[in-house]
Structures are given as C-alpha cells and as structure tokens.
C-alpha cells in the first residue's frame, strides 16, 4: 500500500508540476506577445512617419522636375517662335526682291522687244545694201577683168601665191623671234641648272679596256702556267672563258675577254695558282669555282656599298646584285657602275634644283642601265631600257622609276618629270670629253651624214661639221637664199637631223649668208 501511495503521489506531483509549468509558459508567452505588439506598433508608426517624409520629398522633386521641363519647353517654344519670325522676315524680303526682279525683267523685256524691232529694221536695210554692193562688186570685177586681161580665178590664185610666200616669210621671222626670246630665258635657266649640277659632281675619266695584264715575278712561271703540251693553259681557258696570251712580253701575260667578270675571275684564279705553286687541271678547276663564288659575294657587297653611299633604301636584293654586276661591265669604254653612280648624283642634284623628289631621281638614275647586265642569252635581244624597266617593275619599284628607266632612250613615252631628268643626266655623263671611247669609223660617218643632210637642201654652197659633231656650219648662196629664208633653212635642217639621225647631246645649226660686191679699179 505504501508503494502504491508513493507512485500516486509522484504522479500527482508530476501533473501538478506540468500544470504549473504550463501556466508559467503561458505567462511568458503573453508577455512576449505584448512586447511584440508594442514593437510592431512603434515600427508601424515609424514607417508611417518615414513614408510621409518620403512622400513629401517625392512630391517636391516632382514639382522641381515639372518646373525644369516647363522652363525648357518655354525655351524651345521661344526659339521656335524666333526662327519662325526670322523665316517670315526672310520670306517677306524674298517676296519684295522677287517683286523688284519681276518689275525689272518686265522693263528689260520691253527694251529687248524694242531692240529686236530695231535690229529687224536694220537687217532689212543691210540686206538691201548688201545686194547693191554685190551688184556693184560684180560690175567692178568685170571691169577689172577687161582691163587686166585676167579672170577673177587667175587673179585670186596669183594673189594667194603672193600672200602665201609673204605669210610664210613673216611666220618664219616671227617664229624665229619668238624662239630666240623663249631661249633667252629657258636656256639660261636650264644651263644654270645643268652647269651647277655638273660642277658639283666630281667624276673619273678612266676608260675600261678588254684586256688585263697579269704581272709575273719571273718568266719561269710562264712554263708552269702553260703546262705539259699546253694542258694547264687550255684548262684555264676552258674553265674561265678567257683567252690567255703568252708572248715575248717579259714577266707578263695578257688576259683578253670582252666580259669583265670572266677576266677578273681569270686574274684572281691565276694569282691564287701562282701564289700556291700547284698548277694542274684539277687544281685549276677547283680554284676557278672558288673564285667565281668569291666574285659573286663581292658583286653583292659592291651593290650594297653603292646603294648605301647614294642613300637609297629598300632596294630589292636582285636589283642590288644587278648594281654590283655593273662594276664589271663597260659601255663604250666607260665603267657602267661609275656611269650609273654619276647619273644618280646628277639626277639627285638636278631634281633638288627643280623642286622634285631627289631620292626618287637618284633611284631612277642608278637603275637606268641595269638592263645592260642581262642574266640569260634570251634577255640580250631585248633593248636594255625595256629590260631594265621590266626588272624594276618585277621587283616592286614605283611607276615613276620604271617609266624613267624605260624612257631614257625614248623607247616608250615619258609620263613623269623624272624621266627627262634621267635622260639628260645620262647624256651629260656619256657625252662629256674623255668619258667614252667611240669607234672612229662611226664617228666619221656621223659627221659625214650631218654634212650630207645640209647638202640636201637647195641653195647650200658648203657645209662643215665642227666641234666634234656638236655644230653644223652651213654656207648658203646669197643670190638664192634671203635672210628670212636662212632662218627657215636653219629650222628645217634641225628638224631633218632630229628625224633622221641618232646622236648624243645637241647639234647646233648655223646658217651663214654673205654678200660680197667686188670691183676692180683700173
């Protein structure tokens, strides 16, 4: 019984404790709810206050924005009204101007109508006068025909012939005077530029030959070069393409070849063989091959040094190689590289004097003769100016440079100002005394052709080509050629020479007419 009472008592205690805990928890919950309601009320109140404040701010901002938009709109309206007012003013001005123009045009039309009527009246009057004049002219012509015994056509033809001769003489005199006046200014300026250019360029006057002399220390070396039964000299000639002449000249042998590159290869190969002392066909072939490679390298180096000296940049490697090869070529005995360098310098100075691009002119002057160093036999048949132009175009040169190269011997038409400069500088370099070696027969033939051209004209008594073909003196018969016809004859001879002959530089034609009256006193 006691244990049962204890259990019951424990259960009752638990129930009472649970009830008490529930009451306590309910009290805490009511307090928490009360506090939460209080906080929610305060939050709602703060939110209402903040909302009112924000509402007032937004309303104020909206009012300000409205005022700004209203002010801008008023400005736009004012500007539009101003433009409309200006447009209306311009329209009114135009209307008044048009009204004035209409009034003036009306007056002009009235004046024009009056003038047309006057012209029509005068035209009728002139037509009547013209018919009267024609009748009078016909009667006068008939009277003149009766008096002179010539018809009108015959008299007209005689008059025309007389007028033609007079007009031709007057025209030649006027043309001569005009040409002289133009030459006074043009030639003076041109001579000034050319002389200034020539004086500023220093040149060499060495003439290239087709033979080279190889000096030996002693005549004993000649036998070693010839070899047993001439096998060494034959091997050397076969490998280099150079004729080797061994004669009685002491301590020297002669290398003969028109190709300067082959001659230089042979000279250097001989020098190496003689220095080394081993001379036999196999050794000769080996040395010649090495020398050819050395010459090729030297050609490239010469081309690079040349373009650097002249201040030319961006040249294609193949064109640089062609420039180097010009060192071993000659034209009428003048070294081609020296000639091209000289032309480049002349072109640069002359272009600068004329206000053109001196660098472009130098480039064209240096490359103008690259067609003289062809790579293949097929290219030999192409004129060197055209071949050089093709190379320059192939390797990316500018059209001005290509045209200057192709036109410097008039194979094509000159299209740029650099082209005549290159042509003139080429003539200056080639035509100066001592620059080139010309064949005597062709030189004499050219002088004879000049004199024959002069004798082909009527009234020529004597003709002399002087100043190394730079001047042609023509002596005419004073009875057959007048002073006016002498000027005409000089012009016609110059045109004939330009058409029929090819010559360097210029030819001056001087016509001399002399009248002598001789009497003998007895």
What features would you describe in this structure?
By secondary structure, this protein is mainly alpha-helical. It has 15 helices and eight strands. The protein has helices at residues 2-148, 152-199, 220-226, 231-240, 260-276, 281-310, 317-325, 336-353, 358-367, 377-380, 384-394, 399-407, 418-431, 440-455, 483-500; strands spanning 211-215, 243-245, 252-256, 330-331, 334-335, 460-466, 471-476, 508-513. The chain has a three-stranded antiparallel β-sheet with strand order 1-3-2, with helices on one face. Helix 15 (483-500) links the parallel strand 7 and strand 8. Helix 6 packs across helix 7 and helix 9 (358-367) packs across helix 12 (399-407). It starts with a helix and ends in a 9-residue tail after the last strand. The model is unreliable at 202-209 (pLDDT under 50).
**What average pLDDT do the residues reach?**
80
Encode the helix/strand succession as letters.
HHEHHEEHHHEEHHHHHHHEEHE
Going across the major beta sheet, what is the strand order?
A: 1-3-2
The biggest sheet, with number of strands, parallel, antiparallel or mixed sense and barrel status, is:
3 strands, antiparallel
**What is the distance, rounded to the nearest whole angstrom, between the alpha carbons of the first and last residues?**
213 Å
Distinct helical segment count? 15
**Basic shape:** flat
The number of distinct β-strands equals 8
Low-confidence segments, given as residue ranges, are 202-209
Rg from Cα: 54 Å
Broad structural category: mainly alpha
Q: Assess the beta-strand content as a share of residues.
A: 5-15%
Residues in helix, %: over 70%
């Amino acid at each position: 019984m006691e244990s049962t009472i204890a259990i019951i008592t424990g259960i009752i205690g638990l129930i009472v404790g649970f009830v008490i805990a529930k009451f306590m928890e309910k009290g805490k919950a009511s307090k928490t709810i009360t506090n939460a309601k209080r906080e929610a009320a305060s939050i709602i109140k703060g939110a209402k206050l903040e909302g009112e404040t924000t509402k007032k701010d937004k309303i104020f901002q909206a009012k300000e924005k409205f005022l700004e938009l209203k002010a801008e709109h008023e400005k736009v309206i004012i500007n539009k009204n101003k433009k409309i007012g200006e447009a209306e003013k311009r329209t009114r001005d135009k209307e008044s101007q048009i009204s004035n123009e209409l009034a003036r045009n009306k007056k002009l039309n009235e004046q024009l109508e009056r003038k047309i009527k006057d012209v029509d009246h005068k035209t009728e009057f002139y037509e009547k006068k013209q018919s009267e004049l024609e009748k009078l002219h016909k009667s006068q012509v008939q009277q003149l025909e009766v008096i002179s015994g010539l018809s009108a056509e015959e008299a007209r033809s005689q008059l025309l012939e007389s007028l033609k001769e007079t007009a031709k003489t007057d025209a030649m005199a006027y043309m001569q005077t005009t040409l002289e006046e133009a030459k006074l200014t043009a030639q003076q300026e041109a001579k000034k530029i050319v002389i200034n250019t020539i004086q500023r360029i220093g040149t060499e006057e060495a003439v290239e030959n087709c033979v080279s002399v190889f000096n030996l220390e002693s005549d004993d070396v000649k036998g070693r070069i010839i070899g047993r039964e001439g096998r060494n000299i034959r091997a050397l000639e076969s490998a280099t393409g150079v004729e080797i002449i061994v004669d009685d000249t002491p301590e020297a042998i002669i290398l003969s070849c028109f190709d300067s590159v082959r001659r230089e290869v042979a000279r250097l190969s001989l020098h190496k063989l003689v220095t080394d002392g081993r001379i036999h066909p196999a050794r000769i072939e080996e040395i010649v091959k090495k020398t050819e490679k050395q010459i090729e390298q030297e050609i490239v180096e010469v081309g690079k040094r040349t373009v650097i000296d002249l201040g030319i940049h961006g040249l294609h490697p193949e064109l640089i190689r062609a420039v180097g090869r010009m060192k071993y070529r000659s034209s009428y005995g003048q070294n081609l590289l020296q000639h091209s360098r000289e032309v480049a310098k002349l072109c640069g100075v002359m272009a600068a004097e004329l206000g053109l691009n001196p660098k472009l002119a130098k480039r064209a002057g240096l490359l103008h003769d690259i067609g003289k160093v062809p790579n293949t036999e097929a290219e030999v048949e192409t004129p060197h100016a055209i071949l050089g132009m093709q190379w320059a175009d192939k390797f990316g040169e500018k059209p001005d440079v290509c045209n200057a190269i192709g036109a410097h011997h008039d194979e094509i038409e000159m299209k740029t100002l650099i082209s005549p400069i290159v042509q003139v500088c080429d003539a200056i370099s080639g035509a100066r005394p001592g620059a080139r070696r010309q064949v005597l027969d062709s030189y004499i033939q050219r002088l004879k052709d000049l004199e024959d051209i002069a004798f082909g004209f009527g009234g020529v008594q004597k003709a002399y080509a002087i100043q190394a073909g730079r001047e042609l003196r023509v002596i005419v018969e004073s009875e057959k050629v007048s002073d006016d016809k002498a000027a005409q004859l000089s012009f016609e001879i110059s045109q004939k020479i330009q058409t029929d002959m090819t010559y360097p530089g210029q030819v001056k034609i001087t016509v001399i007419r002399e009248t002598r009256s001789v009497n003998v006193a007895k």
